[in-house]
Amino acid sequence: MVLTKSDIAAKINELGFTKKTAVDTVESLLEIIKQTLANGDDVLVSGFGKFCVKSKRARRGRNPATGANLTLRERKVVTFKCSGKLRNNINMKYDGKGSSTY
Q: Which of 46, 86, 95, 96 is buried deepest, with most CB atoms within 10 A?
């Protein structure tokens, strides 16, 4: 299952906020995150994780469709590193046998 912006807004709406307020809140939060990352700054959400902007050097590559060699330009990418709390929460769910492992 994928969690979409609409799903997040619906969950906020269930907390008692109007649908418009919920949608505006989600949009505003995502816009703040996008602008912060675009400025080259990291976004840290305690208990969740950290979005980081990393620079990648130019490198040689290959077009998989044609096999032609090419140079990939220098670029920036966004990475995510989850917090220890989130990692523990995810790994705590199930042991594959239907029982919880804590």
A: 86
